[in-house]
Amino acid sequence: MISDRMRRIHDFTRNMVSAIANVSLYAPDHRQVHRLCSKAHENLHDAMAGEKELFFLRIEDELIFNNTPLESSMSLGKFNQILASRGIGHIKFLCDVSPQEIRTLAVSLSGRIAFSDGVRSTEHIRLGKIDIPSSNDDDDLNEQEDRLRIALEDIPMYEVKAFADMHESIRKNEKISVNGISSIVDSLIGHFRQTAMPLLAIAPLRLLDEYTYTHSTNVCILNIAQAMSFGVRGSLLHEIGVAAMLHDIGKLFIPEEILAKPRKLTLEEMDIIKQHPLKGANHLLGMAGIPKLAVVCCFEHHLRFNLTGYPTVRSDWQQNLVSQMTAVSDYFDALRTRRVYRGSLDFDKVAGMMIDISGTELHPALTRNFLRLLARLQEQPDNHLTRSPIT
Ligand SMILES: [Fe+2]
Ligand SMILES: [Fe+2]
Questions:
Q1: Which end of the chain is more exposed for a tag (fewer CB within 10 A), N or C?
Q2: Cα torsion at 102, 108, 85, 213 (round to 10°)?
Q3: pLDDT by residue (tens digit) across 121-136?
């Protein structure tokens, strides 16, 4: 059985991961960031239980706490990924660590502020650095990916804010403006025109909060790629992108404990999750500036090709093709996300799983086209899409 101390350590990593995601979504001094960091500080203080220091050591996918491997969980996996991406091999927390130092750590781990020498130790937080290996053979590709990553990270700086503000307004039941979403979609479409390998863009964003910006952006990128491969351009392409950005907006009305639960959901919890398409569509319906396509797509994105799935619809329901496109992108992104805590799935396995359910759960022609698009990318050596999410 998990001890009280270990539970506190798990709470600490969960609050840290949320704080880091919130720094990226809002701002380093947002009240949500302060709240989560002081919770993380409290967890750490309780776990310290009078000792002088706590020590975390990262060994590949495992996090060792004071010489004991921690039981894996989604937030622990993410925390580990974040540490790896910043080249941190171990962290020592000394007993007088302050909430302010915890917040400094969260801000620097988020990458929101570029530190000239990366993430730094503070008086009571000692970081041990490792070198991040890079292959010389793939220098050109790495360089191209880096450029793309930097370009896409430029978008979040001001546009993630627009997305986060929109979420906040929806939570408070205020009117929302679609302008922020429109400019994100425009930027993404713009990047597609500029680069030969636009799909590479989806992985570097993986470190952010998957339920909000990352997942929506990934589905948006994958939808735009599908639509463009069919020759869709102009305002329809833009609407398809907006619909993808908003498809999971109904999750804002689902309790966070259920969304972030690392264990299997109960039937009651599943029923609550299944309300998100209807809740989202209801919310978007009638809002000025929201394309009707976004409302439809929000409502239908968990419907399957054979009309099972949810919500329940009449047997003669005609599912919109863009909703079916979104279902394909959503399924793929969900599989990739699962890899973090359910073991690795290589591209062939993902493709096999998608083929297996095409014709029943997924639209067969859209699935084949989607896999063709990805297979083209797979031919590129060492690409982000078909290898492990960035660490
Ligand atoms: Fe969904
Ligand atoms: Fe989704």
A1: N
A2: 100
A3: 888 998 876 543 333 4
Model pTM? Answer: 0.56
Whether 365 and 268 map to the same domain: the answer is yes
Closest CA to 341 of 277, 243, 239, 264: 264
- Cα(131) to centroid of ligand 2, in Å? 35
CA 330 to ligand 1 centroid distance, Å: 8
181 Cα–ligand 1 center, Å: 18
Among the bound ligands, name the one nearest to the CA of residue 302. 1
Measured in angstroms, how far is the CA atom of residue 216 from the centroid of ligand 2? 7
187/336 same-domain check: yes
pLDDT at 112: 67
Angle 123-124-126 from CA coordinates, rounded to 5°: 90
Output the pLDDT for position 200. Answer: 44
Partners of 128 in the beta sheet? 90
**Looking at 129, 149, 164, which one is the last position of a domain?**
129
- Which residues of the chain are modeled with pLDDT < 70? 1-2, 60, 67, 112-118, 129-181, 191-214, 336-346, 377-391
Distance from the alpha carbon of residue 300 to the mean position of ligand 1, in angstroms: 9
Q: How far is the CA of 307 from the centre of ligand 2 (A)?
A: 17
Q: Output phi, psi for 129, to 5 deg.
A: -90, 150
Predicted local distance difference test score (pLDDT) of residue 58: 77
Q: How many domains does the chain have?
A: 2
* Dist. CA 280–CA 86, nearest whole Å: 36
pLDDT for position 30: 85
